[in-house]
Amino acid sequence: MTYPPPSDAESQQWFSRYDRGQKGHLTLDEMHNLLNDRGSSLWAPFDQDTAFKLARSFAPPGTQGPPTLTPPALNALWQYLSQWHSIFLSFDADRSGRISHSELQNALAAFGIRLPPRLIHLMIHKQNLMQGKIQKGRRLPDDIDFPSFIDLCITCKQATDTFGRLDTSQSGSIQLYWENYMDIIVSGR
Ligand SMILES: [Ca+2]
């Protein structure tokens, strides 16, 4: 089941409903609530961290402080989620509603990102750990849901962009001073 992008009228209706005080923009919390309410029949809830990454990606450039979303930015976000949900479904080969190790490996390879199985396992484990989806006494999930898939793809894209920016000769390797490395870790860019 795919999620069609909303019409302009529908999108405006949702925006008005969640824009408390009719400010003309959605705060991070308002956008987070809207995201989970609208997608409740299709995907697991987005956690706060992934919602923040999405809001930051679609907030107007140069936004200082917490990201906010205008109506056009909300439309762009829904288009983005709709496209990614289709991609998610296309790589969910066994139609389980989740992405397994091999399905993730295929998806990343299709995006030009080739990673060893150990790293794929680690990323899946870390996603489930970060999002509190590992419960005490239960076997660790070895697959991820749609919000985790989105989060992981955003992380991979940021890492690939950062590496590409530093690999000016496109040799596939970079040399980093400690300070530059710390700058990347701390700034998250
Ligand atoms: Ca699957």
From TrEMBL:
Main localisation, per the record? cytoplasm
> Can you give the residue ranges of the EF-hand domain?
6-41, 79-114
An example of a Pfam family matching this protein is EF-hand_6
Q: Give the location in the cell.
A: Cytoplasm
Gene3D superfamilies linked to this entry: EF-hand
Which keywords does this Swiss-Prot/TrEMBL entry list? Calcium, Cytoplasm, Metal-binding, Repeat
Against PANTHER family, the record matches this protein to: GH27120P, PEFLIN
The identity of this protein, by name, is: EF-hand domain-containing protein
Q: Which organism is it from?
A: Umbelopsis ramanniana AG
Q: What is the lineage of its organism?
A: Eukaryota, Fungi, Fungi incertae sedis, Mucoromycota, Mucoromycotina
